[in-house]
Amino acid sequence: MDEPMRIDKWLWASRLSKTRALAAEAVKAGRVQVNGVAAKPSKDVKPGDRLELRTGPVRVSVVIRGTAPRRGPASEAQRLYEETPESAEARIRHAEERRLARQEGGEGGRPTKRDRRRLEQVKGVRRREG
């Protein structure tokens, strides 16, 4: 189908957003632009429109290829848009940087019990006996 569709519904159907509520929230927050202009959730999009979506540090730029009356499988959803080469390259580069940062210990997260005990030993913290 190639008839106009609400942007929040399209983002959800194309699986660029997990829920329609999150899609509407992203649009209201100004993280979605249609043809270079900030959109409202009720904005209709149609094939040929250029959409830019910011999710955290990643910007996704796509060209809308079609609309769908309902949310279908991911394989169908991928046919609704075409990601621009610059956007795909930036997304892949960001994923690689995150992977490397994780390997280097940049995003270690919560320390394990063993790590915590070593930290306490280095800091000279005495644990209470209970």
What are the defining features of this structure?
single chain, 130 residues, alpha+beta, Structural Genomics Hypothetical 15.5 Kd Protein In mrcA-pckA Intergenic Region, Chain A, five-stranded antiparallel β-sheet, two-stranded antiparallel sheet, 38% helix, elongated
Short description:
This protein has 130 residues and is of the alpha+beta class.
Report on the architecture of this protein:
The structure is a single chain. Helix 1 crosses helix 2. The protein has a single domain (5-106), classed as Roll (Structural Genomics Hypothetical 15.5 Kd Protein In mrcA-pckA Intergenic Region, Chain A). The model has no long low-confidence stretch (mean pLDDT 88). It is an alpha+beta fold and 130 residues long. The chain has 5 helices and 7 strands; from the N terminus they run βααβββββαβαα. The strands form 2 sheets. Strands 3-2-5-6-7 form a 5-stranded antiparallel β-sheet. A two-stranded antiparallel sheet has the order 1-4. Helices cover 38% and strands 19% of the residues.
Give the helix/strand layout.
Layout: E1 5-6, H1 7-13, H2 20-28, E2 32-34, E3 37-38, E4 44-45, E5 50-55, E6 58-64, H3 74-77, E7 81-83, H4 85-103, H5 113-123
Antiparallel strand pairs: 1-4, 2-3, 2-5, 5-6, 6-7
Helix pairs in contact: 1-2
The major beta sheet can be summarized as: 5 strands, antiparallel
CATH-defined fold name? Structural Genomics Hypothetical 15.5 Kd Protein In mrcA-pckA Intergenic Region, Chain A
DSSP summary: helix tally: 5
Evaluate the radius of gyration. Answer: 21 Å
CATH level 1 name: Alpha Beta
**What percentage of the residues does DSSP assign to strands (E)?**
15-25%
Could you give me the name of the CATH homologous superfamily?
Answer: RNA-binding S4 domain
Report the strand count.
7
List the helices and strands in order.
EHHEEEEEHEHH
Bin the helical content. Answer: 25-40%
Contiguous uncertain segments of 5+ residues: none
Structural class: alpha+beta
Estimate the global geometry from the Cα principal axes.
elongated
**End-to-end Cα distance:** 68 Å
Strand order of the largest sheet: 3-2-5-6-7
> Could you report the average pLDDT, rounded to the nearest whole number?
88
- Named at the architecture level, the CATH assignment is Roll
